[in-house]
Design a protein that fits this description.
The protein is α/β, with parallel strands linked by helices and 265 residues long. It is 17% helix and 30% strand. The protein binds zinc ion.
């Protein structure tokens, strides 16, 4: 196992950031993951508020950083507003995302919603993601998921292992099968586990999964480890522990994502 290449969780909360004594273990920052090679961040998957304190994890960056967005809901992009790297001309930032990332991001990271405009960031460019991207020995492959306004997940194949990230997906559509095909054989599955089954009943169309849906995807794909993410903003640390322990009855190697959790690639 080559621990020089890894994915680090920066934010695991879905929908909106939270804070307080009930959210210490699993954190309050929204979705973001760092791709790290030899201690240096080469990319991020999503840029929710969790991305902002990336330096707290002992990481450095090189001159070029690629950001792969799953979609453009606030909890996946809001960290771009306060990410120091975006506003520095020391780094070339390339933002990959479905459809038209330039239009989606520059229309909302701008006045009157934010005091400065993303189009004025000194070294940023946008690339629609249409297929696999090779990055520093990692192969990053998008696939479609079921989510309002559309979204993608990412499979990341590294030199020693592989991880799939499905942050936002509502199970129960024809896409369930194609997702399993896309992630088959990964070592680690990081999957939306926002709801308990009874909560999903009142949130049809919100675009999220239950822990049961995540377990089903792990079993069908052959993953050896399941990490639940997009945690409900109302779910306290204690509530997340309950959810994880329930899921472990059906899939023993289940845990929940928390800032600093590191997965070898
Ligand atoms: Zn979303």
């Amino acid at each position: 196992m080559d621990s020089n290449v890894r994915l680090v969780v920066l934010g695991s909360r879905g929908s909106i950031p939270v804070s307080g004594a009930d959210f210490v273990v699993y954190g309050g920052g929204t979705t973001s993951f760092a791709l790290v090679v030899d201690g240096r961040v080469v990319g991020f998957i999503d840029a929710g508020t969790g991305v902002v304190p990336w330096r707290d994890f002992g990481l450095a960056v090189g001159p070029s950083i690629d950001v792969f967005l799953t979609h453009y809901h606030w909890d996946h992009i809001q960290g771009l507003t306060m990410l120091d790297l975006v506003w520095s001309d020391d780094h070339q930032i390339t933002i990959h995302g479905p459809n038209d990332p330039r239009a989606a991001l520059t229309s909302v990271i701008a006045p009157p919603w934010f005091p400065v405009s993303l189009v004025d960031a000194p070294s940023i460019r946008f690339e629609p993601i249409v297929g696999p991207v090779e990055l520093e020995g990692l192969m990053i492959t998008p696939f479609g998921v079921e989510h309002p306004q559309g979204a993608v997940g990412y499979r990341i194949d590294g030199p020693s292992s592989s991880v799939a990230i499905v942050t936002d997906h509502e199970a129960g559509s024809d896409l369930d099968g194609s997702i399993v095909d896309s992630i088959r054989g990964v070592e680690v599955l990081i999957h939306d586990g926002q709801y308990q089954p009874d909560e999903a009943e009142t949130h049809r169309g919100w675009g999220h999964s239950t822990w049961e849906d995540a377990v089903a995807a792990a079993l069908l794909s052959g993953a050896n480890r399941l990490i639940l993410t997009s945690l409900d903003p109302r779910r306290t640390d204690e509530g997340v522990d309950v959810l994880v322990h329930t899921a472990r009855r059906d899939f023993h190697s289940t845990e929940a994502a928390y800032p600093g959790l590191s997965v070898s690639l």
